[in-house]
Amino acid sequence: MPPTRPPGQSRNLGTAPATSPCPRTPAGPQPTQPGFLEADTVAHRGGSLAGDFIWSVTYTDILSAWTEGRAVWNRGAEGVVKATQDAEASLPFAMKGFDCDNGGEFLNYHLLRCFSERPKAVQFTRSRPYHKDGNAHVEQKNWMWPRQLLGYQRLEDPEQVEPINELFRQAWSPLHNFFIPAQKLKKKWREGSHWRKRNEARSSPAPDRHLPRSHREQLGGHHLTP
Predict the structure, then answer these.
(1) Half-sphere exposure in the Cβ direction for 122 (13 Å, CA)
(2) For 20-56, b where at least 16 C-beta lie within 10 A, e where not — what string?
(3) Which structural domains are found in the chain, ordered by start?
(4) Single pTM value for the model
């Protein structure tokens, strides 16, 4: 049987660093300011994981729900770092923390250096393995972002990566971050054997009160002026 990947080609997910990011528990302290992101990947594989294809990386700010997405070829470590840096440049606030799952595309020296070798290091954490909803904020965005835009078909042309990223930057991000409201959990408590929830009023991430006023005015003027 022929190999599923041409010889010499590898996804190069990277090598896990000796000092792995600390696990983050959902019950731990929650961010009180924007800049703490969760990240997750989506495979545009059609019905098979064999061979080479495009992946989407979704980044969601835990507090404001601001979301960015980038396409990468084969989920390689260097490609994920470049996608993360590009997404970071589009954020209306500084990145302070980065939380991911336990995949090799995230847990590697490339991304660790990206976050640690800078004037102000980014807090790098990971979800606990084999626990559901470890990255619930970003996982709920996977359908609204890559799936709703790109569907479930197989994307196996590397020339499509940059056009998809341009679509993410110029259309999909402004649409979701300025014009589509998001609803966030405000309070959760238990009454007997039942859990009760109270949500905040729906609002789009851009005018969120947690964003700096200067950013709200600048971003609003850029996208909302007729």
Answers:
(1) 26
(2) ebeebeeeeeebeebbbbbbbbbbbbeeeeeebbbbb
(3) 31-157 (3.30.420.10)
(4) 0.79
